[in-house]
Specification:
Layout lengths: L3 E8 L3 H12 L4 E5 L9 H6 L1 H23 L13 H25 L3 E4 L1 E6 L2 E6 L2 E12 L3 E3 L11 E2 L1 H4 L8 E5 L3 H12 L3 E5 L11 H13 L3 E3 L2 E7 L4 E6 L5 E4 L2 E4 L3 E3 L6 H4 L3 E2 L2 E2 L12 E3 L10 H15 L13 E3 L4 E6 L2 H6 L4 E7 L4 H5 L6 E7 L5 E8 L6 H9 L4 H5 L10 H10 L7
Parallel strand pairs: 1-2, 1-6, 2-3, 6-19, 8-15, 9-10, 9-15, 10-11
Antiparallel strand pairs: 4-5, 5-6, 7-16, 12-13, 13-14, 17-18, 20-21, 21-24, 22-23, 23-24
Helix pairs in contact: 1-9, 3-4, 3-6
The structure holds flavin-adenine dinucleotide.
Flavin-adenine dinucleotide binds next to helix 1, strand 2, helix 2, helix 3 and strand 4.
């Protein structure tokens, strides 16, 4: 095969890589994107194939089933439902249909922007050349600029390697039957999103977490409603507990819990969700000898690595490992290569847990702001006092706004409650635009909506809340 020469070579077709390629194509650059496909994702990467989208589809289906079961049991809205059942294989087919539509949409968008797609595993030969193992033989690609976007993969636990009953989120999103008993190792967002979904589908779920509470990277106030809901769903949560191996010929997890005798948790499936690691191995990264930032590729504010004209975006470059961060970095790199003066500013990156209830954070928490030396005003508004939340039967949770005490500049917004993921954009916009409490308080919010809780939280920060 003749070598391919291009201005830009993008390695990896996840949110970081494909968005970079589309933007570079829009800017008239000659782009080649290499994607290896396979279980961990074709075009769209982890996010579209085995991450954000399939998990949210499963969470939605589990929620719908759970509501139907609840209606059948007690008909709180007077809706009569006869004993609902779920055909998980059909649910997976529906989820796969959504994934298929989105991933083929990415392919169409790339073609529309004249991005050449090469399918196969890329190995870097040097900072300008890679060799791709394609179905029809090796293909060499040379480019002026290389964008590394190889993403991340589920990190295994030494004591519980993947295989057999021990699965990662990827396999959990394609189970055709609901396990009777599911052990989830790790109470971060991935473990809790999937654990909650399986509990709603009828599995007996036990969560095993090494920290002293669930969602340890979120502040305790935000995690509390989620813990209450897990309890209501009869999910057992073992904190200060470590999964140290398999027991009973693989039918149970052996657990060491601080202050408690050793125990085992019987499980038909064991979901290890203790974290993800950057995908650094197996593609010749060592030949580039890039400066590292711990377990990630070091990049500067333009996403430039330590080698000239080699760029890196997305999970490969560190936390927060989120699709929207990867996409934003991808856009920056394409524009920098096209000659624009751009930097990636990660100060306002919303994070959402699609747990029950959902959790959103943007910017600083009150404690983080205080630790940064700020005196703050904090306004919190409970969904119990929000009409829309009551009509949705979802009064758990609140919106919390943190602002500087001196000039009322909003430093952070957080919320926990049903459907609050849809408020993330409004929260991020407020921070990005440098809003003050008065700006949010002076904005007319539609009634009845959950967004009114944001309005009222800002008013409360000013001591002027109307409905609490
Ligand atoms: P990836 O999406 O991992 O893409 C990298 C791509 O590179 C892959 O397609 C891979 O096949 C390809 N590749 C790697 N090496 C090579 C090679 N040598 N040659 C060719 N191709 C290669 N994030 C959110 O923002 N919101 C969520 O709700 C959310 N939910 C998640 C749920 C789950 C269960 C998981 C696992 C993740 C979730 N994430 C979520 C995280 C999100 O998926 C990642 O942050 C995002 O996909 C990172 O994008 P990326 O482009 O850096 O890498």
């Amino acid at each position: 095969m003749a070598d391919i020469a291009a201005k830009v070579l993008v390695v990896g077709g996840g949110p970081g890589g494909y968005v970079c390629a589309i933007r570079a194509g829009q800017l008239g650059l000659d782009v080649v994107l290499v994607e290896q496909g396979g279980l961990n994702g074709g075009l769209g990467g982890t996010c579209l194939n085995v991450g954000c989208i399939p998990s949210k589809a499963m969470i939605h289906a589990a929620d719908a089933f759970h509501h139907a079961v609840r209606q059948a049991a007690s008909a709180p809205f007077g809706l009569r439902v006869e004993r609902p059942t779920i055909d998980l294989a059909r649910t997976i087919e529906w989820k796969d249909g959504i994934v298929g539509r989105l991933t083929s949409g990415v392919g169409t968008l790339l073609k529309r922007h004249r991005v050449k797609i090469v399918h196969g595993h890329a190995g870097m030969l040097d900072g300008k050349t890679c060799r791709v193992e394609t179905d029809t033989g090796p293909q060499v690609i040379r480019a002026e600029h290389v964008v590394l976007a190889t993403g991340s993969e589920a990190a295994p636990l030494a004591a519980l390697p993947f295989g057999g009953k021990v699965i990662s989120s990827t396999e959990a999103l394609s189970l055709h039957t609901v396990p009777e008993r599911l052990a989830v190792i790790g109470a971060g967002y991935i473990g809790l999103e999937l654990g909650t979904a399986f509990a709603k589908l009828g599995a007996k779920v036990t969560v095993i977490e090494a920290a002293d509470r669930i969602l340890p990277v979120y502040d305790a106030e935000l995690a509390r409603p989620v813990a209450r809901r897990l309890q209501a769903l009869r999910v057992d949560v073992l904190t200060r507990a470590k999964a140290v191996g398999l027991a009973d010929e693989g039918g149970a997890v052996q657990v060491d819990q601080e202050g408690a005798p050793k125990c085992t948790v019987a499980a038909d499936r064991i979901l290890v969700a203790t974290g993800r690691r950057a995908r650094l191995a197996g593609f010749g990264l060592e030949r580039l000898d890039l400066t590292m930032n711990g377990p990630f590729v070091h990049v500067d504010e333009r996403c430039a690595t330590s080698m000239r004209n080699v760029w890196a975006v997305g999970d490969l470059t560190g936390e927060p490992m989120l699709a929207h961060r990867a996409m934003a970095q991808g856009v920056v790199v394409a524009e920098v290569i096209a000659g624009h003066r751009r930097v990636f500013d990660g100060a306002v990156i919303p994070a959402v847990c699609f747990t029950d209830p959902e959790v959103v954070t943007v910017g600083l928490s009150p404690d983080e702001a205080r630790r940064a030396g700020r005196e703050v005003h904090v306004g919190t508004f409970p969904f119990q006092a929000n009409g829309r939340a009551l009509t949705l039967g979802a009064e758990e949770g609140f919106v919390r706004v943190t602002a500087r005490a001196d000039n009322h500049l909003v430093l952070g917004v957080a919320a926990v409650g049903a459907g609050v993921s849809e408020l993330a954009g409004a929260f991020a916009l407020a921070l990005e635009m440098g809003a003050t409490l008065e700006d949010i308080g002076g904005t007319i919010h539609a009634h009845p909506t959950l967004g009114e809780a944001f309005h009222e939280a800002a008013l409360r920060g000013l001591g002027e809340a109307l409905h609490v």
